[in-house]
Amino acid sequence: MPIKSDFPDVELSVTDIWSFLFNRKDREFPDDHVIFQSAETLSRQYTFAQLRQLSVDFAKGLKTVYEFRKGDVLGLFVPNDIDVPPVVLGTLWAGAVVSPANPGYTVPELVYQLKDSGAKALCTHVSVLDTACKAAREAGIPESHIFLLGAKQEDGTTRIKHWTSIRNQDGLQRFRLPKFHPKTDLAFLVYSSGTTGRPKGVRLTHFNMTSNIEQIHSAEGWLTWNGTSTPPNSDIPLPAHGQGDKILACLPFFHIYGLNCLVLSPIYSGVHTMVMARFDLERWCSIVQDHKITFSYIVPPIVLLLCKHPVVEKYDLSSLRMTNSGAAPLTRELVEGLYARKGVKVKQGYGLSETAPTIFMQKWEEWRSAIGTTGVMVPNLEAKFCAVPGSGEESDGGKELARGEIGELYVRGPNVFGGYHNNPSATAECLEDGWFRTGDVGFLDERGNLTITDRVKELIKYKGFQVPPAELEGYLASHPLIDDVAVVGVESEALGTEAPRAYIVRKGGLSAVKPTDAAEIIGWMNAKVANHKKLRGGVKFVDAVPKSVSGKILRRVLKERAKTEFRK
Length: 568
Ligand code: 4UU
Known about the structure:
- The chain is of the alpha/beta class and about 575 residues long.
- The protein has 15 helices and 27 strands.
- The radius of gyration is 23 Å and the shape is globular.
- The chain starts with a strand and ends with a helix.
- Ligand 4UU binds near residues 348, 439, 455 and 461.
């Protein structure tokens, strides 16, 4: 029997994201309330009314200048910036789809996403303009269809347009918000490798995203724009009356965690959000202290730094009411360690790109009593746990288990994506009758809190970023010294994260391995990929890659082997 969330079902809105955020009848905060502020240049900020106006003007520009039609795709290749929300919301107003990419991508990585998503135009930033232009050219996007966001360059060194000039065109009045079918119209194409293979476009509809915002907010109801909400019965105080919460946004907006929690949700809740271009530990601490930040979404390696790094000692972090960690496993030792050192509380959230994203979250008041778990199911969600194929009797694979038993988690609900873009076979592998196979293994305790014990999919997570092994294997297989290769994630305690390691069969066999080979291969590989995909787990030479009779790499065997090897 599928397990239902303990929260009562929420009545979900069926509307497009723009209307959901900007035409809300029950909105409490005023038009002139500041939502986004740059943590670098404090004078750069947007109120709710500015966001609404800028997004509509930009949408009309997209339609006139680039002839954007319903379903067209805009590639977004930028570091975090307060201009991201109006550009994203404007694209949605135009009926178009946003496909955000990691600004650390190399040219081939970006080309792949631009081509696969079918992006018609590319929004980028001066700091990554060179990569953006090269990739756009290869993907067939003309230079006229590249534009910039971010603080304007006064020296005019680039001939590429700024997004604000796109909204200032003539003849922009004749457009209206298109008619949406929220359950089928796409809003985002984010890239995820899913359970196997290379990154794929995750088709997220308007309804997927608005549902997840409502699922989270109805269950959580804790962040407040002005300090007046009623708190649940607990020891976590509200901010002072009249002073709302302040979020420090340090996670990337291109990833589903940031996209939902830091770009869309603040517009929904009205919570003042300070935006960092990228995470930097000391800057993060000083901004928390100086601006009395009350909440931040973080990832386990940040918790590790906050626990261990000497620089943290210098700062007062006591304004933080709570933090939320997700995207990778977090140990209870780190949660206790951070509380003991700085009095900072951490709760967990758990989700996936394919679920828009949050499916489990720890209740604020249970940050300690449910420590080490990822919390309870969000409303309107069903879950089931199934036997992991190969873990017991062969025939047991996929069999539904009793509540409390350890198995692979499947979920069904309004936030579950519609499938991978142009990839029906990958979709069929993980979606059936609305049930989505997460590739994560765990169990529920009596209170409904989920403990994740393992990951059965290929995916490696370096500091919460996805590293698809198949992509690295694809490159490595083309190296002249390599006959066969498998890449798996190995735990690095020092880094507080998994990192990719390659097991390599060298041409000529083990006896042909030269002392310089490993460094040669690592250097060659690392030059081709974004920073988070580098072979930080090192390489090992083997006489054969373990494979099943059907030729599938036995990653389990290599992961077990890695545990006994020297840790890098
Ligand atoms: C153990 O990482 C994400 C989404 C993260 C997120 C974090 C906090 C969402 C809501 C929130 O509140 O998405 P992807 O697609 O990049 O990666 C998904 C995978 C999962 O399948 C799981 O293996 O990332 C891993 N993961 C976690 N693992 C995500 N959150 C957790 C977690 N503990 N808390």
